[in-house]
Write a structure and sequence with these properties.
The complex is a heterodimer. Chain A is of the alpha/beta class. In chain A, 47% of the residues lie in helices and 10% in strands. Chain A folds into two domains: 132 residues, Glutathione S-transferase Yfyf (Class Pi), Chain A, domain 2, CATH 1.20.1050; 166 residues, Rossmann fold (3-Layer(aba) Sandwich). Chain B is mostly helical. Chain B contains twelve helices and four strands, in the order E-E-E-E-H-H-H-H-H-H-H-H-H-H-H-H. About 3% of the residues of chain B have low confidence. The chains are: A alpha/beta, B mainly alpha. The complex binds iron/sulfur cluster (4 copies).
């Protein structure tokens, strides 16, 4: 697709917030909506959506996860007539992409989804009906770096940021056919879309080696010690790289970092000071939105004084 | 841990003679150390087939033992005994008793898919890890792991209502695994949230939620999924011969 086509296409998209954004990731929901409004991008929430199955349902049976994700896409396509679904959560984004891939390539998945959809009483989703994108694609392709630069009110200049993408945004590669596709496309080994956007807003991105490291999110509660170790690595690597802020683009990664930052302090006695802030919050503040408007007060990691000091409030 | 730092010899296979004299020369202790060779007699020839029949295990037969999965593995970096390549080898060889030595850590795979990314043969080792953990539980070799308990609580709620509410899921999980909800770090987290948030907001965020979010008109989907789950359970029991196992156990009693 040509760049200008995407620019038009992403101006109005179906919005799939997912469960986490109604709960612990509410700050991400608030800031995504506020950012969209500020940028003149329309979000139409998917009617009566359901959970995509997160990382858990697939362990009971992957085909149920495929069905759950397909129902969301079916609603967007067949009931709302939309051709783009935007999901800010890595988990949702990943699962919809995975379902898309399986429905395109696996006869058995098509058969199970068709059977369940018919029984549930809605149209079966057909591969190719919608394009699923992440919140990063949404801002990057509809507004882009140039567009952002023009709109920046409070530059993020002087803020040292480590961009953290987690696992589900890039892995496994085969469900993201548009990535690693030459100039301008996202990279699965060294993603840069968030870096590009924040840099356009003035930020000082640091060289961060653990961009796609895993935080142990799947076992954040069932094997907390492992998660705490993995998160501690990420936080310390960010600080060692000189970062004051870790920018996030997923509610699960974000709350994983926040939760285990505290747990590391309480159980291992390892204290880190790096702030954890959603990229939508950072961009929103750069465009002149007040911290509360982007839900900074809903983060566990307290960065009020920090953003004030940096001239963002 | 690099491989050269790891002892490949098991302590229980090391034989050391306390007092031994050969032709008048004392060769006690390490002079006569030898390593007992491992003898495997109890092959389970159906092992690969059984794991391949469970979700995620489908492509295990493609593995050519390159080791990229283990090399890239998140958990292996924390625990050298966590070794997907080796387990795939054991499964394909039918070496069940060797596999069972590691039964208590296999469930710790965090599903980061670094292995899937690295695998040149599209084995999807992440899926194989899940299938193996599942197999261990189904066959009664391990109790349900905390991870499985969490998956079940989560999935049950999604299937019932169409949505998930994190606060409720967390509370049920702590209860079912017999852990206190008042963990010091959880309390600290809530305290920090309260610094900037009114209590009403917390309720909305699920930390003290009494309302279960629902997808309306969900009952059709719910029934369809439940029927499918029951069907699959039957199928897995059959492939793993679980009903025969139960029958055999009953006959013995
Ligand atoms: S991945 Fe998480 S947030 Fe997204 S729908 Fe699924 S449960 Fe909800
Ligand atoms: S980084 Fe953590 S929360 Fe994010 S996708 Fe990976 S496991 Fe999930
Ligand atoms: S990376 Fe793939 S082929 Fe290589 S050992 Fe692991 S599973 Fe086998
Ligand atoms: S998915 Fe599991 S086995 Fe694969 S690399 Fe991650 S932790 Fe290791």
């Amino acid at each position: 697709m040509k760049k200008s086509d995407k620019q038009q296409k992403y101006k109005e998209v179906a919005y799939y917030p997912g469960c986490a954004l109604e709960g612990s990731g509410h700050a991400y929901n608030r800031s995504t909506k506020a950012l969209g409004e500020k940028l003149g991008l329309k979000l139409k929430e998917v009617d009566n959506w359901n959970c995509c199955g997160a990382m858990e349902v697939k362990n009971i049976d992957p085909k149920i996860q495929t069905y759950l994700s397909s129902r969301v896409m079916s609603t967007a396509a067949n009931k709302m007539n939309m051709d783009v679904v935007m999901a800010p959560c890595n988990g949702c984004y990943h699962n919809l992409k995975k379902a898309e891939y399986d429905l395109e390539n696996d006869e058995k998945s098509r058969e199970v989804v068709d059977r369940l959809s018919k029984k549930a009483g809605h149209d079966t989703y057909q591969a190719g009906q919608v394009e699923t994108i992440h919140a990063l694609d949404w801002v990057k392709d509809s507004i882009g770096e140039e567009g952002l630069k023009e709109r920046v009110k409070n530059s993020l200049e002087g803020i040292k940021i480590a961009n953290y993408y987690g696992c589900m945004y890039t892995r496994p590669r085969h469900i993201f056919p548009e990535k690693d596709a030459g100039p301008g496309s996202e990279s699965t080994s060294k993603p840069h879309f968030m870096d590009d956007l924040l840099e356009a807003a003035g930020a000082d991105n640091v060289e961060f080696p653990l961009k796609t490291a895993c935080c142990g999110g799947a076992h954040t509660l069932s094997d907390s010690d492992t998660s705490t170790k993995l998160v501690t690595n990420i936080l310390r690597a960010a600080e060692a790289a000189g970062a004051e802020v870790i920018a996030t683009e997923c509610p699960t990664c974000h709350s994983g970092l926040e939760m285990h930052q505290i747990r590391a302090e309480k159980t291992l006695g390892i204290k880190t000071n790096v702030k954890i802030i959603y990229f939508t919050q950072l961009l929103g503040m750069a465009l002149g939105l007040k911290p509360k408007k982007v839900g900074l007060h809903e983060n566990v990691s307290d960065s009020f004084d920090f953003v004030k000091k940096k001239g963002l409030a | 841990m690099p491989i050269h730092e790891k002892s490949l010899i098991r302590p229980e296979n090391l034989k050391v003679q306390e007092n031994i004299e050969v032709e008048g020369i004392d060769v006690s202790g390490h002079w006569s150390t030898f390593i007992e060779s491992r003898v495997v007699t109890d092959y389970n020839e159906a092992l690969e087939e059984e794991i391949a029949a469970l979700p995620g295990g489908e492509f295990i037969h493609r593995c050519w033992q390159c080791g990229s999965c283990t090399n890239s593995c998140t958990v292996n970096a924390l625990d050298a005994d966590f070794n997907p390549r080796y387990w795939i080898y054991l499964i394909r060889m039918g070496m069940e008793s060797e596999l069972l030595r590691d039964k208590d850590i296999i469930w710790q795979c965090v599903s980061c898919n670094k292995c899937t990314y690295a695998c040149p043969r599209d084995v999807v080792p992440e899926g194989v890890m899940k299938a193996t953990a599942h197999w261990l539980e189904l066959k009664g070799h391990t109790p349900k792991s905390h991870s499985t308990i969490f998956d079940e609580i989560f999935s049950e709620q999604v299937i019932e209502t169409g949505k998930i509410e994190d606060g409720r899921t967390i509370r049920r999980f702590f209860k079912q695994t017999g852990q206190a909800l008042r963990q010091p770090w959880l309390e600290e987290m809530v305290k920090r949230l309260l610094r900037n948030l009114p209590i009403g907001m917390l309720t909305r965020m699920g930390l003290a939620n009494f309302i279960t979010p629902r997808t309306s008109g969900w009952s059709g989907a719910r029934d369809a999924i439940k029927e499918y789950v029951a069907e699959q359970e039957q199928h897995h029991r059959k492939v793993l011969g679980l009903d025969d196992l139960v029958k055999a156990a009953e006959n013995e009693l």
